[in-house]
């Protein structure tokens, strides 16, 4: 039941603080060491892995893209991300030492199922990240990390996505622990940041009224762009996908660094552009994103900026500023997804669309 919400999607958006807490529950010790008992692949085999390929479709593929940044950084294992259907029908290089990670909320996506069957025929190990207990993909995998988000009924994935991110972080940290590529205190620091996420998400949801105002001002947009860099790039793609599937308007996500290689030609007066700004930090990511925002604003775009609270460098270039909690760069996708989910839900509601059952879409895609 919808618990008084107008849509399952809105209910599921609001369940995310609890869903993230459940996804973390029992998976680390007090001292921050990871415990992933359900990964039934021996430590010895985990140390032999020389390549990871993450396969998924749609929103789950964007979780996979975020996972690549985190897993490579923490484990130094080369990690590829591929759409399940593209992976299956080329001739991928798979060995016994390849770990194939399949991400699927439903556990029934035929494209991903066919891909894992193929990977196992090639003797690779398959680990599923899945939300649905006992579904086909985990049953046919060597190991599974369940995301524990609870049933997701709205067709557009929300809590499914953020809990997939959590599972990917846990997997990356677990591999780093087993392989000794990161020290215990480093892992503990990230675990502490993960544990703060439910509180951050709750505060974001409590303070989300401005997203409704924003949706009202954009109800007649014909096209919306989304820009991000690094772990914010998949978030931009996810923001665009949510808008396409729920509001049926043209939306596209780009890596901000790619702008000058083509997409900047699309920028025109009043075009809404969502910009996901990396946290301020040691590297140049943040400043490069701020320059990109200056460029598009100079060409008349309406900039809707998602940036960490207190980011005064970017505020002058934001027509609308959506503040994000302060979190490490690799974890930012969790908090940056929230306003984009809410925005798509609000806009589709204002347009009179069925948010839970968008046209032409099914919750689980059981045919290739
Ligand atoms: C978008 C959405 C879809 C799914 C995709 C994969 O909101 O829900 O793009 O993410 O169909 O589904 P699963 O994760 O069930 O394999």
UniProtKB/TrEMBL annotation:
The active site is at 363 (for fru-6p isomerization activity). One of its GO terms (molecular function) is carbohydrate derivative binding. GO terms for biological process: carbohydrate metabolic process; fructose 6-phosphate metabolic process; protein N-linked glycosylation; UDP-N-acetylglucosamine metabolic process. Its EC number is 2.6.1.16. Catalyzes the first step in hexosamine metabolism, converting fructose-6P into glucosamine-6P using glutamine as a nitrogen source. Homodimer. This is Glutamine--fructose-6-phosphate aminotransferase [isomerizing]. The gene is glmS.
């Amino acid at each position: 039941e919808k618990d008084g919400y107008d849509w399952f999607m809105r209910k599921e958006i609001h369940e995310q603080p609890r869903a993230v807490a459940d996804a973390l529950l029992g998976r680390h010790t007090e001292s921050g060491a990871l415990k992933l008992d359900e990964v039934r692949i021996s430590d010895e085999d985990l140390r032999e892995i020389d390549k990871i390929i993450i396969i998924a479709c749609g929103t789950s593929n964007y979780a996979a893209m975020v996972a690549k940044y985190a897993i490579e950084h923490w484990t130094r294992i080369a990690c590829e991300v591929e759409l399940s259907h593209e992976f299956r029908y080329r001739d991928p290089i798979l060995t016994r030492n390849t770990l194939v990670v399949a991400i699927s909320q439903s556990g029934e996506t035929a494209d991903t199922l066919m891909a894992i069957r193929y990977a196992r025929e090639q003797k690779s190990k398959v680990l599923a990240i899945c939300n649905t207990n006992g579904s086909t993909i985990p049953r046919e995998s060597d190991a599974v990390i369940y995301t524990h988000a609870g049933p997701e009924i709205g067709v557009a994935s929300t809590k499914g996505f953020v809990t997939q991110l959590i599972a990917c972080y846990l997997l990356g940290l677990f591999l780093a622990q087993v392989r000794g590529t990161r020290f215990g205190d480093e892992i503990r620091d990230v675990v502490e940041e993960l544990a703060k996420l439910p509180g951050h998400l709750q505060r974001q949801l409590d303070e989300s009224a401005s997203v409704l105002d924003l949706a009202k001002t954009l109800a007649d947009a014909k096209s919306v762009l989304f820009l991000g860099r690094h772990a914010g790039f998949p978030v931009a793609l996810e923001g665009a996908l949510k808008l396409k599937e729920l509001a049926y308007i043209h939306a596209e996500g780009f890596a901000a660094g790619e702008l000058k290689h083509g997409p900047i030609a699309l920028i025109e007066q009043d075009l809404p552009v969502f910009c996901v700004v990396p946290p301020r930090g040691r590297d140049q990511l943040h400043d490069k994103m701020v320059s990109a925002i200056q460029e598009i604003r100079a060409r008349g775009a309406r900039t809707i900026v998602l940036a960490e609270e207190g980011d005064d460098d970017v505020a002058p270039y934001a027509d609308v500023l959506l503040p994000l909690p302060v979190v490490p760069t690799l974890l930012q996708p969790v908090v940056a997804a929230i306003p984009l989910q809410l925005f798509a839900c609000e806009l589709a509601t204002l347009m009179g669309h069925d948010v839970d059952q968008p046209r032409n879409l099914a919750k689980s895609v059981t045919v290739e």
